[in-house]
From TrEMBL:
Protein name: 4-hydroxy-tetrahydrodipicolinate synthase
Gene3D superfamilies associated with the record: Aldolase class I (3.20.20.70)
Keyword Cytoplasm belongs to the record: yes
Assembly information from the UniProt record: Homotetramer; dimer of dimers.
Biological processes per GO annotation: diaminopimelate biosynthetic process; lysine biosynthetic process via diaminopimelate
Species assigned in the record: Thioalkalivibrio versutus
Similarity comment: family membership: Belongs to the DapA family.
PANTHER family, per database record: 4-HYDROXY-2-OXOGLUTARATE ALDOLASE, MITOCHONDRIAL (PTHR12128:SF66), DIHYDRODIPICOLINATE SYNTHASE (PTHR12128)
Chain positions recorded as pyruvate binding sites: 45, 203
UniProt cross-references to HAMAP family, sorted A to Z: DapA (MF_00418)
Site (Part of a proton relay during catalysis): 44, 107
Reaction(s) this enzyme catalyzes, per UniProt: L-aspartate 4-semialdehyde + pyruvate = (2S,4S)-4-hydroxy-2,3,4,5-tetrahydrodipicolinate + H2O + H(+)
């Protein structure tokens, strides 16, 4: 249903942590002009964990209104409470989102049956395309391929963002559900390998600061030019690492501030990028040809 370079969009904020709507509009236009294939709003990179319910819904609706159908908008609506995830997903549908991205419930560590029933309940409650999101490093729970295969039977579950960075996991997902679900990498460093193994796109942090290169890399794979994709990815390797020197989205928001696209606002408990990491992020940006 979706493919290519899908930016996991950072949410612009003022220095006091309030949402910066004009900066969000500028950022969205930046991605539309750069060739990004889809916007993922208010996910992990968008600081969904620190936006309250009303802000979350407003950010989704504002993004949809600004994009105005020029790109698909996928709304992050996951939560570790099934009821809250249903409420957020309803809100996203009412706001006009094209699909929703639902992270596995974090902290409470459900069983595989609990994960299945959680996603089943949301899919049955809200008639909108839904994408599973497995990121064990953040949630402390792993959505296993056999559970994904069960969930693939639910008509409006249309894909999975897999962020385990495991080539073996990618191969198993391609074998089990590659002809039934869209498969998206959630790990920039493993994105090219994921695409070459049969994935359909990358939900990318790196695309925030290098959208043209990420879109070109994904397009080269899709059009059967793997050597060109590898060459583009070599330019991006530094960013794939540097943007995770501290917890996402700390480095990417600092980089976007240096590009003049937003202020350095970020919400506690996250803090601005530590000074020792400034030089490595700048070096990675220059390697990718980004003016700072």
């Amino acid at each position: 249903m979706f493919q290519g370079s899908m930016v996991a969009l950072a949410t612009p904020m003022h220095a006091d942590g309030s949402l910066d709507w004009p900066a969000l509009d500028r950022l969205l236009e930046f991605h539309i002009e750069a060739g990004t294939d889809a916007i993922v709003a208010v996910g992990t990179t968008g600081e969904s964990a620190t936006l309250d319910f009303d802000e979350h819904c407003e950010a989704i609706a504002h993004t949809v209104k600004t994009v105005a159908g020029r790109l698909p908008v996928i709304a992050g609506t996951g939560a570790n409470s099934t009821r809250e995830a249903i409420a957020l997903t309803r809100c996203a549908k009412e706001g006009g989102a094209d699909a929703c991205l639902l992270v596995s419930p974090y902290y409470n560590k459900p069983t595989q049956e609990g994960l299945y029933l959680h996603h089943k309940a949301i899919a049955e409650a809200v008639d909108i395309p839904q994408i599973l999101y497995n990121v064990p490093g953040r949630t402390a729970v792993d959505l296993l391929p056999e559970t994904v295969e069960r969930l693939a039977d639910i008509p409006n579950i249309i894909g999975i963002k897999e962020a385990s960075a495991s080539n073996e996991r990618t191969a198993e997902l391609v074998a089990r559900v590659g002809n039934r679900l869209d498969l998206y990498s959630g790990d920039d460093g493993n994105g090219l390998a994921f695409l070459l193994a049969g994935g359909h796109g990358v939900i990318s942090v790196t695309a925030n600061v290098a959208p043209q290169l990420m879109a070109a890399m994904c397009r080269a794979v899709r059009e059967g030019r793997p050597d060109e994709a590898r060459e583009i990815n070599r330019q991006l390797d530094g960013l794939h690492s540097a943007l995770f020197l501290e917890a996402n989205p700390i480095p990417v928001k600092w980089a976007l501030q240096r590009m003049g696209l937003m202020e350095e606002g970020i919400r506690l408990p996250l803090t601005p990028l530590s000074e020792p990491f400034h030089a490595p992020v700048l070096d990675a940006m220059r390697q990718a040809g980004i003016e700072v």
